[in-house]
Amino acid sequence: MKIYWTKINKIIEETPDIKTYLLDCPEGFTWEEGSHTHFALEGFNAGEHPNRSLIRHMSISTLPHENSIGITTRIREQCSEFKTILRNLEVGNKVALFKTYSNVPLKREDKNVYLLSSGVGLATFRPLVLDYFQRADNVKQIHSLNIDSSKEFLFTNVFESTPDKKFTSRFVDNRKDYYEELKSLAEDKEGLFYVVGSDEFLMQNIEVLREHDIKPEQMMLDKHEQELPEFLPKQKIL
Q: Taking every annotated instance into account, which residue ranges of this chain make up the domain FAD-binding FR-type (predicted)?
């Protein structure tokens, strides 16, 4: 396993409790849209065994052409040891990246794509939308639906409806509006539905989609292949 050590080059306060850490791109580090990585703080590998409290599984919120690796995360007032240390890091501090992989690259199958997310889960979808804007080949259109009860919505400059690019975006701050719209979207029996959020959020979305006869192979979850049966049991998974 190769560990890439790099430095923070910028910290963006997206909202009062969400920050994006922009990291220098280490030589040889590559990724694609929808990627996640293991993001570790200094000292995580100082002992005989890795200190897992200093490691988190994070989505990358940027694309390679932006020349920085973006890690966007929510840091609440009461938070874990990891988030407490992260909150106090500054530009120039070192962090490590390893085991980078994409579970949710943008599929180009001449279908409508629906991006369903909760809160900071939208960070996973930002690169998919930017990739689509760069090259819309074999994607009919994209619609993003995000729920965030804080009403402090992320990346509104990217997630802005652009009809001429066949991209629409909607933010809601309550479950009722979210699931009403999801049911409407699920009327598209050929669409591809990407879901990012907590496990509970994934299960709730899957339940609605299955009730509307959306097949498992139309649902893209940000989970390793071996984890998928926990969410889509006894179904054929592609």
A: 1-107
